[in-house]
Specification:
Layout: H1 55-79, H2 81-90, E1 93-97, E2 102-106, H3 109-114
Antiparallel strand pairs: 1-2
Length: 115
């Protein structure tokens, strides 16, 4: 490269411009001609039934999702443990809000004052 014009110069190919969409031709894999259930080399069709996911993987995924859903509630229990203990010691109601990440404390005596 002698100067900066070699990078953008006349030796580099130009990309076609225009509004026409590009048509990509995909070679036929032959799976449409293969009879269903047979093993044809290169067709991608096998004798084994296809399942969405094995039962073990489905159970593991459900366990992980359940653990993730319970994470905010467990974090809130650890975060507000001292406040909750004091509120219960005083006889207040502890109400969890927003999935366990917020608390509302209520003294039952205020209800008797209103009536």
């Amino acid at each position: 490269m002698v100067n900066g014009t070699d990078m953008l110069g006349r030796d580099n190919p130009r990309w076609p411009t225009g509004n026409a969409t590009e048509q990509i031709k995909v070679p036929d894999s032959g799976s449409s001609q293969a009879p269903r259930g047979s093993t044809v080399p290169g067709a991608g069709v096998s004798d084994l039934p296809v399942t969405a996911a094995p039962d073990g993987l489905r159970a593991a995924t459900a366990a992980v999702v359940t653990w993730l859903i319970g994470l905010p509630r467990r974090a809130g229990q650890r975060l507000f443990a001292m406040n909750d203990a004091e509120a219960r010691w005083r006889g207040w109601q502890v109400i969890e809000l927003t999935g366990g990440l917020a608390r509302q404390y209520r003294d039952a005596r205020f209800h008797t004052m209103r009536t």
